[in-house]
Amino acid sequence: MSSPVDFSTSSLRASAEMEAVDSTARSHRGVIAALAAVLVVAVVLAVLLLHTKSKAPGSATKSSPGPIAASQTLRLKGMTAAVAARSIMAPLIAGQQVGTLTITRLVPSGTRVKKGDLLVEFDRQAQLRDFVDKQAQSDDENEKVIEELAKEAAARAKDETEIKQAEDSLAKAKLEMEKVELLSRIDAEKAQEDLDEAQATLAQLKETFDLKRKAAHASIRILEIQRDRTRETMLHAQANSALMEIHAPIDGIVVLNTIWKEGSMGTVQEGDQVRPGVPFMQVVDPALMEVRVPVNQEDLLGLKPGEKAQVRLDAYSDLVFDGQLESIDPMGVAGDFSPKVRTFSATFSIKGHDPRLMPDLSAAVDVGPADAADGSVHK
Fold this sequence. Notes:
Strand order of the largest sheet: 1-12-16-14-13-17
Strand content: 15-25%
Mean pLDDT: 80
Distance between the termini: 107 Å
Structural class: alpha+beta
Helix content: 40-55%
Number of strands: 17
Number of helices: 4
């Protein structure tokens, strides 16, 4: 039978062995945690180092911008326009303050016209009425000028007659003075007074004659100016009446513009009122059409004049036209989203014609390759 002392010694030895095992386990866990922390730090440092190198100047090779890749297609959106087109605007009325003009006749949109054909006619009643009124006023003022000229001619003849009588009186007084030695003193003095009076009268008549002519000329000139002004107004009214008819300047097709009228946007029709100077119509030659598209500066670097393209109309998906880049505007404008990114305007010509191809249609321009099945041309 073992003693209590042996039992106590065995218990102490077992406790010591368990503590040694726990200490060893804790030390192993600490080593593993330290290794894991070192590994995490190393990974983070590696990621940061790679990120820093990618941002460093000259550390990475950037691909230089160039033509569109062989496997890419650049799509641009724009509007169709006619190469040869003439804008038709409501006529500007000379010499009048006119708010609006009323359309009485209008050629429908899409009508094919020839040069000289009537396109639109405005109500000319106001211009004709003004012409008739000014014509009557001009005739009346012209009669006043003629009447004043006749009065001046009669007054001039009367003044010339008075001057001639004064000259005769002066000559008679001079004859009387030649025989003054034969006259009495009283008769001599009377003859001298008659001579002085005849000389003064003649001088006064000559002086007033010139003043009367200048006054009459000024009065007649005023009437002539009034008559000429009225005649100019009459001619303006006559010219304005002729402006109420607008004829086609070139052969082409009529296209009505969308304008602001009566509180909404729309095209004009007969009976509508248009403000003078507003372009409400175009005459376009559909034989030559083009597409104008905005190009971002990033896409611009891959474009060059002469590049082939395909033009599709949004309204007619079955229409596909061959196109070619004709020009790029050298000056750009600030973009919609950033002032640092510029937008340039490019013009693509359209080859071919279709009755449905009209100006102001939205179109898509594909620059670059596509499958031969859909008719595109590879670059």
